[in-house]
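Quick one: co-fold with zinc ion.
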Amino acid sequence: MPDGEPPVTPDHPPQAAPAPAAILHGLQGRDCPVCGTSERGAAPFLSASIDPARIGTLSFASRKPPEYMSFRLVRCRTCETVFAAEAPSAEALAQAYRDAGYDSAEEARYAARTYAEALAPRLSPEHRRGTALEIGAGSGVFLQELLDLGVTEVVGIEPSHEAVAAAPAALRPHLRIGVFEPGQHRPGSLSLVCCFQTLEHVPDPRALTRAAFDLLQPGGLIAFVTHDYQAPLNRMLGRRSPIIDIEHMQLFCPASLRRLLGDAGFGEIGIAAIRNRYPLRYWLRLLPLPGPIKPASLAAAEALGLGQRSLGLNVGNLLSVARKPG
Ligand SMILES: [Zn+2]
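Sure, here it is.
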Protein backbone atom coordinates (compact mmCIF):
# COMPACT_ATOMS: atom_id res chain seq x y z
CA MET A 1 0.00 0.00 0.00
CA PRO A 2 1.42 3.45 -0.89
CA ASP A 3 2.68 5.68 1.91
CA GLY A 4 0.15 8.05 3.39
CA GLU A 5 -2.89 5.83 2.94
CA PRO A 6 -4.77 5.05 6.11
CA PRO A 7 -4.79 1.41 7.13
CA VAL A 8 -7.98 -0.43 6.32
CA THR A 9 -10.06 -1.49 9.27
CA PRO A 10 -12.41 -4.39 8.52
CA ASP A 11 -15.92 -3.60 9.77
CA HIS A 12 -16.85 -7.16 10.60
CA PRO A 13 -15.79 -9.21 13.60
CA PRO A 14 -12.78 -11.46 13.01
CA GLN A 15 -13.79 -15.03 12.30
CA ALA A 16 -12.04 -18.22 13.18
CA ALA A 17 -9.84 -19.00 10.17
CA PRO A 18 -11.11 -22.08 8.33
CA ALA A 19 -8.85 -25.09 8.11
CA PRO A 20 -6.66 -24.01 5.19
CA ALA A 21 -7.02 -27.24 3.26
CA ALA A 22 -10.77 -27.63 3.89
CA ILE A 23 -11.26 -26.50 0.30
CA LEU A 24 -9.72 -29.79 -0.84
CA HIS A 25 -12.34 -31.98 0.84
CA GLY A 26 -15.24 -33.21 -1.27
CA LEU A 27 -13.90 -32.31 -4.71
CA GLN A 28 -16.51 -32.95 -7.40
CA GLY A 29 -16.00 -34.19 -10.95
CA ARG A 30 -16.97 -31.69 -13.66
CA ASP A 31 -17.84 -31.69 -17.34
CA CYS A 32 -16.82 -28.78 -19.57
CA PRO A 33 -18.20 -25.67 -17.86
CA VAL A 34 -18.65 -23.89 -21.22
CA CYS A 35 -20.15 -26.47 -23.62
CA GLY A 36 -21.05 -29.37 -21.31
CA THR A 37 -18.95 -31.98 -23.13
CA SER A 38 -18.07 -34.86 -20.83
CA GLU A 39 -14.75 -34.70 -19.01
CA ARG A 40 -14.03 -38.17 -20.47
CA GLY A 41 -13.76 -36.53 -23.88
CA ALA A 42 -11.23 -33.93 -22.75
CA ALA A 43 -7.48 -34.06 -23.31
CA PRO A 44 -4.94 -33.85 -20.45
CA PHE A 45 -3.60 -30.30 -20.03
CA LEU A 46 -1.77 -30.19 -16.69
CA SER A 47 -1.51 -32.65 -13.83
CA ALA A 48 -2.65 -31.62 -10.35
CA SER A 49 -0.14 -29.72 -8.23
CA ILE A 50 -1.43 -28.94 -4.77
CA ASP A 51 0.44 -28.53 -1.50
CA PRO A 52 -2.26 -28.42 1.21
CA ALA A 53 0.21 -26.83 3.63
CA ARG A 54 0.60 -23.82 1.33
CA ILE A 55 -3.10 -23.02 1.00
CA GLY A 56 -3.72 -19.87 3.04
CA THR A 57 -6.21 -17.03 3.14
CA LEU A 58 -4.49 -15.35 0.19
CA SER A 59 -4.84 -18.41 -2.06
CA PHE A 60 -8.32 -17.21 -2.98
CA ALA A 61 -7.48 -13.50 -3.02
CA SER A 62 -7.60 -11.64 -6.31
CA ARG A 63 -3.95 -10.69 -6.63
CA LYS A 64 -1.09 -12.28 -4.76
CA PRO A 65 2.36 -13.77 -5.32
CA PRO A 66 1.82 -16.71 -7.69
CA GLU A 67 1.80 -20.14 -6.08
CA TYR A 68 1.77 -22.26 -9.27
CA MET A 69 -0.70 -24.70 -7.74
CA SER A 70 -3.58 -26.16 -9.75
CA PHE A 71 -6.23 -28.83 -9.77
CA ARG A 72 -5.97 -31.43 -12.55
CA LEU A 73 -6.61 -29.47 -15.72
CA VAL A 74 -8.02 -30.88 -18.95
CA ARG A 75 -8.78 -29.26 -22.30
CA CYS A 76 -12.20 -29.64 -23.92
CA ARG A 77 -11.85 -31.00 -27.45
CA THR A 78 -15.13 -29.34 -28.45
CA CYS A 79 -14.74 -25.71 -27.30
CA GLU A 80 -11.06 -25.52 -26.22
CA THR A 81 -11.86 -24.45 -22.63
CA VAL A 82 -9.30 -25.69 -20.10
CA PHE A 83 -10.98 -26.71 -16.86
CA ALA A 84 -10.42 -28.33 -13.49
CA ALA A 85 -11.66 -31.90 -13.86
CA GLU A 86 -12.28 -32.07 -10.11
CA ALA A 87 -13.14 -28.91 -8.19
CA PRO A 88 -14.55 -27.71 -4.86
CA SER A 89 -18.33 -27.35 -4.61
CA ALA A 90 -19.93 -23.94 -5.26
CA GLU A 91 -20.53 -23.64 -1.51
CA ALA A 92 -16.90 -24.39 -0.64
CA LEU A 93 -15.70 -21.81 -3.18
CA ALA A 94 -18.11 -19.17 -1.87
CA GLN A 95 -16.77 -19.81 1.64
CA ALA A 96 -13.16 -19.55 0.47
CA TYR A 97 -13.79 -16.21 -1.23
CA ARG A 98 -15.79 -14.91 1.73
CA ASP A 99 -12.74 -15.46 3.92
CA ALA A 100 -10.19 -14.37 1.32
CA GLY A 101 -7.60 -11.81 2.29
CA TYR A 102 -7.33 -8.62 0.26
CA ASP A 103 -4.01 -6.98 -0.47
CA SER A 104 -4.41 -5.50 -3.92
CA ALA A 105 -5.63 -1.91 -3.56
CA GLU A 106 -2.99 -0.31 -5.76
CA GLU A 107 -3.04 -2.97 -8.49
CA ALA A 108 -6.84 -2.90 -8.53
CA ARG A 109 -6.82 0.84 -9.29
CA TYR A 110 -4.45 0.34 -12.23
CA ALA A 111 -6.49 -2.56 -13.56
CA ALA A 112 -9.75 -0.62 -13.29
CA ARG A 113 -8.31 2.26 -15.29
CA THR A 114 -7.09 -0.12 -18.01
CA TYR A 115 -10.51 -1.77 -18.28
CA ALA A 116 -12.41 1.53 -18.29
CA GLU A 117 -10.28 2.90 -21.14
CA ALA A 118 -10.80 -0.30 -23.13
CA LEU A 119 -14.56 -0.47 -22.53
CA ALA A 120 -15.46 3.22 -22.93
CA PRO A 121 -15.63 3.18 -26.77
CA ARG A 122 -18.36 0.49 -26.65
CA LEU A 123 -20.62 2.41 -24.24
CA SER A 124 -23.52 4.24 -25.93
CA PRO A 125 -25.63 6.93 -24.25
CA GLU A 126 -28.25 4.21 -23.58
CA HIS A 127 -25.71 2.10 -21.71
CA ARG A 128 -24.62 5.08 -19.63
CA ARG A 129 -28.21 5.99 -18.76
CA GLY A 130 -28.86 2.55 -17.30
CA THR A 131 -27.69 0.36 -14.44
CA ALA A 132 -24.37 -1.48 -14.55
CA LEU A 133 -23.68 -4.61 -12.51
CA GLU A 134 -20.16 -5.78 -11.74
CA ILE A 135 -19.71 -9.39 -10.61
CA GLY A 136 -16.57 -9.66 -8.49
CA ALA A 137 -16.28 -5.95 -7.75
CA GLY A 138 -13.50 -6.13 -5.15
CA SER A 139 -13.23 -2.77 -3.39
CA GLY A 140 -15.36 -1.06 -6.04
CA VAL A 141 -12.63 0.75 -7.96
CA PHE A 142 -14.14 -0.14 -11.34
CA LEU A 143 -17.58 1.03 -10.17
CA GLN A 144 -15.97 4.43 -9.61
CA GLU A 145 -14.58 4.34 -13.16
CA LEU A 146 -18.10 3.62 -14.47
CA LEU A 147 -19.53 6.53 -12.49
CA ASP A 148 -16.77 8.73 -13.92
CA LEU A 149 -17.80 7.55 -17.41
CA GLY A 150 -21.32 8.82 -16.71
CA VAL A 151 -23.07 5.54 -15.91
CA THR A 152 -26.17 6.48 -13.88
CA GLU A 153 -26.33 3.60 -11.42
CA VAL A 154 -23.74 0.98 -10.49
CA VAL A 155 -24.03 -2.17 -8.38
CA GLY A 156 -21.13 -4.40 -7.38
CA ILE A 157 -21.19 -7.90 -5.92
CA GLU A 158 -18.15 -9.15 -4.03
CA PRO A 159 -17.77 -12.18 -1.77
CA SER A 160 -14.72 -11.03 0.22
CA HIS A 161 -15.62 -9.06 3.36
CA GLU A 162 -12.09 -7.72 3.46
CA ALA A 163 -12.26 -6.38 -0.08
CA VAL A 164 -15.56 -4.59 0.58
CA ALA A 165 -14.19 -3.21 3.85
CA ALA A 166 -11.39 -1.65 1.79
CA ALA A 167 -13.89 0.25 -0.40
CA PRO A 168 -14.05 4.05 -0.20
CA ALA A 169 -17.03 5.18 1.91
CA ALA A 170 -18.77 6.74 -1.10
CA LEU A 171 -18.81 3.38 -2.90
CA ARG A 172 -20.00 1.20 -0.02
CA PRO A 173 -23.72 1.76 -0.74
CA HIS A 174 -23.14 0.36 -4.25
CA LEU A 175 -21.49 -2.87 -3.02
CA ARG A 176 -23.22 -6.03 -1.86
CA ILE A 177 -21.29 -8.76 -0.06
CA GLY A 178 -22.00 -12.20 -1.48
CA VAL A 179 -21.90 -14.18 -4.69
CA PHE A 180 -23.91 -13.42 -7.84
CA GLU A 181 -27.53 -14.48 -7.39
CA PRO A 182 -29.56 -13.68 -10.52
CA GLY A 183 -32.84 -13.73 -8.57
CA GLN A 184 -31.81 -10.56 -6.75
CA HIS A 185 -32.07 -8.53 -9.98
CA ARG A 186 -35.01 -7.79 -12.24
CA PRO A 187 -34.85 -9.42 -15.71
CA GLY A 188 -34.21 -6.86 -18.42
CA SER A 189 -33.15 -4.21 -15.89
CA LEU A 190 -29.44 -3.83 -16.62
CA SER A 191 -27.61 -1.96 -19.38
CA LEU A 192 -24.18 -3.46 -18.65
CA VAL A 193 -22.82 -6.54 -16.86
CA CYS A 194 -19.08 -6.68 -16.16
CA CYS A 195 -17.09 -9.63 -14.87
CA PHE A 196 -13.38 -8.86 -14.77
CA GLN A 197 -10.73 -11.38 -13.75
CA THR A 198 -13.51 -13.34 -12.09
CA LEU A 199 -14.89 -15.70 -14.74
CA GLU A 200 -12.04 -18.17 -14.15
CA HIS A 201 -13.07 -18.37 -10.50
CA VAL A 202 -16.80 -19.08 -10.67
CA PRO A 203 -18.09 -22.65 -10.47
CA ASP A 204 -20.44 -22.29 -13.48
CA PRO A 205 -19.50 -19.64 -16.06
CA ARG A 206 -22.21 -20.87 -18.44
CA ALA A 207 -24.96 -20.26 -15.87
CA LEU A 208 -23.49 -16.84 -15.09
CA THR A 209 -23.44 -15.82 -18.77
CA ARG A 210 -27.00 -17.01 -19.40
CA ALA A 211 -28.26 -15.25 -16.26
CA ALA A 212 -26.52 -12.04 -17.35
CA PHE A 213 -28.26 -12.31 -20.72
CA ASP A 214 -31.67 -12.50 -19.02
CA LEU A 215 -30.91 -9.56 -16.71
CA LEU A 216 -29.78 -7.29 -19.55
CA GLN A 217 -32.16 -5.08 -21.45
CA PRO A 218 -32.22 -5.55 -25.25
CA GLY A 219 -29.07 -3.91 -26.61
CA GLY A 220 -27.31 -4.28 -23.24
CA LEU A 221 -23.64 -5.21 -23.07
CA ILE A 222 -21.69 -7.90 -21.29
CA ALA A 223 -17.96 -7.44 -20.74
CA PHE A 224 -15.43 -10.01 -19.55
CA VAL A 225 -11.75 -9.64 -18.82
CA THR A 226 -10.06 -13.02 -18.71
CA HIS A 227 -6.68 -14.57 -19.19
CA ASP A 228 -5.93 -16.20 -22.54
CA TYR A 229 -4.20 -19.50 -21.90
CA GLN A 230 -3.22 -19.59 -25.58
CA ALA A 231 -1.37 -16.25 -25.43
CA PRO A 232 2.34 -16.63 -26.26
CA LEU A 233 3.55 -15.59 -22.80
CA ASN A 234 1.32 -18.11 -21.03
CA ARG A 235 2.32 -20.89 -23.44
CA MET A 236 5.97 -20.08 -22.88
CA LEU A 237 5.72 -20.07 -19.08
CA GLY A 238 3.66 -23.27 -18.90
CA ARG A 239 3.18 -24.35 -15.31
CA ARG A 240 5.14 -21.27 -14.19
CA SER A 241 2.54 -18.91 -15.63
CA PRO A 242 0.56 -16.89 -13.05
CA ILE A 243 -2.62 -18.19 -14.70
CA ILE A 244 -1.84 -21.63 -13.27
CA ASP A 245 -3.60 -21.05 -10.00
CA ILE A 246 -5.63 -23.18 -7.64
CA GLU A 247 -8.45 -20.62 -7.71
CA HIS A 248 -8.93 -20.95 -11.47
CA MET A 249 -11.71 -23.44 -12.16
CA GLN A 250 -11.40 -22.81 -15.90
CA LEU A 251 -9.17 -20.99 -18.37
CA PHE A 252 -10.36 -19.42 -21.59
CA CYS A 253 -9.12 -18.61 -25.08
CA PRO A 254 -10.86 -16.61 -27.83
CA ALA A 255 -12.64 -19.71 -29.19
CA SER A 256 -14.05 -20.76 -25.82
CA LEU A 257 -15.19 -17.21 -25.01
CA ARG A 258 -16.93 -16.96 -28.38
CA ARG A 259 -18.70 -20.24 -27.67
CA LEU A 260 -19.69 -19.15 -24.13
CA LEU A 261 -21.16 -15.83 -25.29
CA GLY A 262 -22.72 -17.14 -28.49
CA ASP A 263 -24.47 -20.07 -26.78
CA ALA A 264 -26.02 -17.64 -24.26
CA GLY A 265 -27.55 -15.64 -27.14
CA PHE A 266 -25.14 -12.72 -27.39
CA GLY A 267 -24.20 -11.14 -30.72
CA GLU A 268 -21.64 -8.60 -31.97
CA ILE A 269 -18.98 -10.48 -30.01
CA GLY A 270 -15.66 -8.64 -29.94
CA ILE A 271 -12.62 -10.28 -28.32
CA ALA A 272 -9.28 -8.49 -28.22
CA ALA A 273 -6.05 -8.52 -26.25
CA ILE A 274 -5.61 -5.64 -23.82
CA ARG A 275 -2.43 -4.09 -22.52
CA ASN A 276 -2.39 -4.01 -18.73
CA ARG A 277 -0.73 -1.00 -17.13
CA TYR A 278 0.75 -1.72 -13.69
CA PRO A 279 3.56 -0.43 -11.49
CA LEU A 280 6.92 -2.09 -12.11
CA ARG A 281 6.86 -3.64 -8.63
CA TYR A 282 3.71 -5.58 -9.59
CA TRP A 283 5.28 -6.99 -12.74
CA LEU A 284 8.39 -8.00 -10.80
CA ARG A 285 6.29 -9.77 -8.19
CA LEU A 286 4.65 -11.87 -10.92
CA LEU A 287 7.84 -12.89 -12.70
CA PRO A 288 8.94 -16.50 -12.23
CA LEU A 289 12.39 -15.51 -10.99
CA PRO A 290 14.41 -18.07 -9.05
CA GLY A 291 15.40 -17.84 -5.38
CA PRO A 292 16.69 -14.52 -4.09
CA ILE A 293 16.63 -12.76 -7.47
CA LYS A 294 13.01 -11.65 -7.10
CA PRO A 295 13.36 -9.89 -3.71
CA ALA A 296 16.66 -8.41 -4.91
CA SER A 297 15.02 -7.05 -8.09
CA LEU A 298 12.13 -5.63 -6.10
CA ALA A 299 14.49 -3.98 -3.62
CA ALA A 300 16.58 -2.54 -6.45
CA ALA A 301 13.50 -1.15 -8.21
CA GLU A 302 12.30 0.47 -4.98
CA ALA A 303 15.77 1.86 -4.19
CA LEU A 304 15.92 3.44 -7.65
CA GLY A 305 12.45 4.89 -7.15
CA LEU A 306 11.12 2.82 -10.07
CA GLY A 307 8.76 0.55 -8.14
CA GLN A 308 5.71 2.71 -8.80
CA ARG A 309 6.64 3.68 -12.37
CA SER A 310 3.89 2.15 -14.50
CA LEU A 311 4.45 0.00 -17.53
CA GLY A 312 1.88 -1.25 -20.06
CA LEU A 313 2.34 -4.82 -21.28
CA ASN A 314 0.33 -7.35 -23.23
CA VAL A 315 0.48 -10.30 -20.87
CA GLY A 316 -2.25 -12.34 -22.48
CA ASN A 317 -5.41 -10.76 -21.09
CA LEU A 318 -8.53 -10.52 -23.22
CA LEU A 319 -11.40 -8.06 -23.16
CA SER A 320 -14.57 -9.66 -24.53
CA VAL A 321 -17.60 -7.45 -25.17
CA ALA A 322 -20.89 -8.70 -26.60
CA ARG A 323 -24.40 -7.32 -27.07
CA LYS A 324 -27.82 -8.71 -26.34
CA PRO A 325 -29.76 -8.45 -29.61
CA GLY A 326 -32.81 -6.23 -29.95
ZN1 LIG B 1 -16.22 -27.45 -23.93
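If it helps, The pocket of zinc ion is lined by residues 32, 34-35, 37, 76, 78-79, 81 (CB under 6 Å).
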